[in-house]
Structure formats: C-alpha cells, structure tokens
Design a protein that fits this description.
homodimer; alpha+beta; 4-stranded antiparallel β-sheet; 41% helix; 22% strand; globular; DNA-binding
Amino acid sequence: MSQKRTTPLEAPSIEKHHCTVDVRLEKLGMVQFFRGLDRETLQQISKKFSASHFTAGQPIYYEGEKATLLRVVVFGAVKLIRQTEDGKEILVDMLKPGEYFGSLNEMGEDNYTETAVAQSDACILSIGNREFRSVLNAHPSVAVAVLDVTTKKLNSAREQIHHLATLSVEKRIAHILKELCAKFGEESKVGMLLQLPLSRKDLADMAGTSTETASRIMSRFQQDGLITTGRQWVAIKDYNALSEIISGN
Amino acid sequence: MSQKRTTPLEAPSIEKHHCTVDVRLEKLGMVQFFRGLDRETLQQISKKFSASHFTAGQPIYYEGEKATLLRVVVFGAVKLIRQTEDGKEILVDMLKPGEYFGSLNEMGEDNYTETAVAQSDACILSIGNREFRSVLNAHPSVAVAVLDVTTKKLNSAREQIHHLATLSVEKRIAHILKELCAKFGEESKVGMLLQLPLSRKDLADMAGTSTETASRIMSRFQQDGLITTGRQWVAIKDYNALSEIISGN
DNA sequence: GCACTTCTTTGATCCAGCTCATTTTAGTAC
DNA sequence: GTACTAAAATGAGCTGGATCAAAGAAGTGC
C-alpha cells in the first residue's frame, strides 16, 4: 500500500473496515429499507446477519447455484452479471453500499439468476432468505420499502431494454456514464471521478457491445474533452456534453 | 359480431363480461397476490376497486402522466410500451388477467414510466395507489406476494436485456414465441394458438427489431413448419424446434 | 361482390458495429 | 530506472439487420 499509486481511485481500504457489531448496526441502519425502524428492532434484525469479506474480482455466488441468502453491500461495489455458454457476458447491475442482492425467494426454492462478483474489495452482510421473509412478514413497512426498491430496479431494467433496442452504442455509453456518475461520482481534481474500478470490458458489458467498440467510443469522448480516463478509471469532465450526445443526432 | 370471421382467435366477448360485484370479487381472488386472503377481507378490499372497460387498441394511460392508480387486468390483454420521440416503440410487457400494472409508488408522487394499451378488449380494475399502500401495510402477506411478482418481472426483464445484448434476432423471436406460448397458448386445431391479437410490429417491438425483419423471420419459421400464422395471430406447431433454434448455432 | 384499409411480405441497398489481429500504453513490482 | 503484465487503442474487412420502396394478402363495411 505504500507504493507510488498513480490511479486517482481511492486506495482500497478494506483493512480499515471492521464489521463489528456496532459498525454492522450502523450500516444496516443506512440500508434503504431498514430506515425508520427503531433502534431496538434494528438490533434484533442485525443479529441475524453475518458478515463476510471479498477481494476485488472474487465471485460471491454463481448463476444457477441454489439461492439461499439475501445479501447487503456494506462496503465496496458488487457487480451482477449474466453469461452465455460462449463466454459472452453482460452486466445487469452495479451495486453500492446499502443495496441488496441475492435471493429473496420463498425458502430457497430457486436458483440465483445471475453471478455476483466483488468489483472492488467488499464487505457483505447476509441473511438466510427464510429468516428475511419472517422479517418482511413481521414488519410490513420493510416489505413495502423492499418493494419500492425492487420496483425502481424494474423500471431501470426496462429503461435499459429500451436503450438497447433503440439507441446507438455511443448514446448508450453516454447514458451509462451519466448514471454511474450519479451513483459513484465523487468530486476530484480530474472531474467527477467514478469511485470504482471500471474497465472497458465492464463498460462494454453494460452497454451490450464489444470491448473494442467501447474503447473506441471512450477514446473519442476523451479527445472531445468529455471525460478523463485511464486504466480502470473514468472521470466525467463535461456532464452536459454527455446529455447532448444522448439527445443529439 | 355476426360477420364471417376467419381468424382462429376467439371472438371478442366483452359483452358477455359484466363486472358485477360478484364477478369482481371472484376475479380479484384469482389475482396472484390476493390469494390466501379470507373471503371477508377480500370483500372489503374489493370495494376499493372500480372497474372500467377498454376496447382493443385503446390507451389506458400514457408514459409521463401523473401516476395515481394501480390496476389489475381482469379480462383481455394489456401491453406496456415505451416510445422514443422519433416514433420508435418497444414493448416491455404483455399482461394477462390476474397481473397488475400502473403505479404503486408512494402517494402518486411519480409519473408512469410506460404507456399502457389494451391489446384486446379488456376489463380493468383500479385502485388509488394510496389506498393500495394501506392494503399492503395492513396485510404483509399481500406485500410480500406483490414483491415476489415484481422480483419475477425484474428477473425476466434482465433476461431480456441479456438476450438483446447477446442473441441474434432469430433467437430472440424464437424465445419470445416460446414465452408467449407458455402464457397465452391454447390448444387448437392449428397448434398452440396464442390467444391474443399479435401483429408483426408487436413482435418486432418485443424483440427490439424492425417489422420487416420480424416478418422475414416469421415467414421462415412458417416455411420450416414451426408455426402457423396469419394476420394478427400465431400458432406454435413445433415447440421443440423453437428450442433448438435458441440453443443452436 | 366490390372497394378500401391495414397488415404482411419481399427485394435491394447500405452502414454501425463485430471480429480478428496487432501495437501501444498505464500501472505495478523490483 | 527497468522489466513485466494486463488493459486499452487502433486498423481493416465483413455481415446482420436497418432502411427505403413497393407489391401482395386479409379482413371489414357497404
């Protein structure tokens, strides 16, 4: 860690992170759908979760495996991907702390429909889906909140479908950059820096295109001064210009 | 209605359908997420719904309008579409009786994210989303059931994303036919007939392709004996062959 | 039966983006 | 600084589908 780092990305700091009971409690309180629960209830629920750590690139579970756990990102980023037999891959979601993933099906009857991979070093809390179900049934407000989150995900999945079907690759990538900026962007000297490792392949998998095409488009964006980018990192310099690309011709 | 009909599709029979209180109750009981409620509770809830009829092709609401109602299909089919300014259209979902659509957002703060159109003559029940929220909060089992339905929709939306990004148009259409067959198929003399009006354009909008390409592919499928098709209707003759197309090369 | 509308088919052309192949570069380790 | 590695860029050629254009059914109303 004492190396000369040139990436603008924040140094991985998982060491600093300890999932003590207190930290865990605090983190769970930040999760969208646990907001508004009183401290005691939260504490009870918190006991049912257990924490685990993953290093960047490490798979958390695989598509097709028996789905038994619901998980929550506490630290780091997690990507959800789907693969074809012939190695093609697409990235369906990129999660940040506070988001849930995995299974919430009735009693582990089903299998995971996607593979989850730690995009950076990450800390994950998990709970058996049976237990989570009982939480949902005991606390309707939580169930409704989870429903809201899921509905939003559904809407954005449908938006992505719309984009895949109607927009050029350039517009799709511009759009993805904007979304990532809103979600992972942090002010920095090089512009709004996306605080997660992000390769051309990741971008390509999000946009449903080839790595080469993604690369070409990113090069063009950089030349035109819309972004600054290096190996595995991207910073947005001109957000408005991206918007124009999307609406333009 | 006494015309010489040549379509194999069932004659529209909305006239036969009257949304009396009893019928309504019965229908609501069939809705996925109301199952398991006792008769009395259901009756109470039922009172909060009101019924309306739409004729084939009639819009139910438009994308961007203020979202105030949650609706349930009781009779007929409803399609959800998204449009681009330049008239391109994509079909994100095709609903059958028992499915819900519209808004379930907190107190009508949001707008509809898609346009809903009656695909055939249809009867729809609707409830204010505020009221529906209170139902959810009062009956956790319903909230959890709605969550399950929504999670399934999310999974299939992501599958569609995967398909758009990785499969050829031919495979996508084969897949769509299979799914429609499972959902709307009915045994008939011409094979599994899809019991809903379905144009080439609808198919194209589902597959994210042009009407012409959809038409070409359907012609090929018919020549190869996989389907029988006419104006606005499709019947699947060889389900297995469709599967082979999807997995094949 | 005839006219009219709307859906479907088919043909011909063109280009965005994929593929394959290779070079360049950023970032890391020593 | 030097060496090494994996990511990114770039070039060239090919093709699946889009687009444009026009002819051919199917269904409806009179």
